[in-house]
Amino acid sequence: MRADELLRRYLEQRRELGEQELVLDGLSVDDVMRLIGAGRPKSASDTAVGANWRDSLRAAGAVESTPLADMPAATSPSPIADRGIIDLPPGIVVGTDARELFGGDLSRCQTIDDVAALVRACTRCDLHRTAKNPVPGEGSPHARLVCVGEAPGASEDETGRPFVGQAGQLLTKILEAIKLSRDDVFIVNVLKHRPPGNRNPRPDEVDACRPYLVRQLEIIRPTVIIALGTFAAQALLETKLSIGKLRGAIHRYHGIPVVVTYHPAALLRNPAWKRPTWEDVQLARRLLDGAIAVPPP
Ligand code: URA
Ligand code: URA
After folding, report:
1. Of residues 81 and 214, which shows the higher confidence score?
2. Which atom of ligand 1 is least distant from the CA of 189?
3. Which of 220, 216, 221 lies closest to 191, judged by CA?
4. Would you state the pLDDT for residue 84?
5. Which domains does the chain have, with CATH numbers?
6. pLDDT tens column, 221-233
7. Pocket of ligand 1 (CB under 6 A)
């Protein structure tokens, strides 16, 4: 049997056992090779197989190329929970912590409901023409954690509520893992109307919609923001850096600490990202608990 085939079977088995992240995080490539009986490459011609293995593992998400890559094998509590802030790379800083960012109608919005009313009437871009319902966001106006996603999908468009589809159910579980219910937090997207067929949001749509998110964050003034996935992270932090580069640091958005993690929909496609996501939300939890200091901007 080909090495890749063996590896695939091995990974599937671990997934069925529900523990593949733990297992893979604790193993080196050589460990996995020994486990499936591949041994070390003996000759130069075998090295190609070795490299292939490494690529396969990486493609399977088992080898992280993130700042958290060097973490020891899974222990409890999470290694990151014990990390001092000094160990984290510096994050991106967007804006100052001054409260008022926008003038006009939005600055007159004093409550989350005021913002939602403006979102419902919004015609700033064309997405309202094709969307069934606006999805302004929901949760506690006093939330200490705000989760920011990308844009409504089909289920959200039907219901007018954020993260209620499959990805949303996973988000609910992720929140439960850090002892939070959906009612404790505020869940919102960068875009408030669904892009047709879930196409990627366009820059002009983001620019049109961004003031609502900013005002929501101003009103709620959470202790921590979690950016879910590449799109939310890049939109909030005004960067093109990849999610791998953005994870594992504490960024600041107008003074509010931002933790970046994978989008729950991406986790559904790639369960090997669950473990790093767990690390990320533990970091958010530690910030909420005041257990780690926020680096100065
Ligand atoms: N994906 C998102 O980014 N947001 C939702 O509300 C649902 C899915
Ligand atoms: N790509 C995405 O869009 N989101 C993730 O979280 C990871 C990869």
Report:
1. 214
2. 4
3. 216
4. 47
5. 3-64 (no CATH), 90-288 (3.40.470.10)
6. 999 999 999 999 9
7. 149-153, 156, 162-163, 165, 167-168, 189, 265
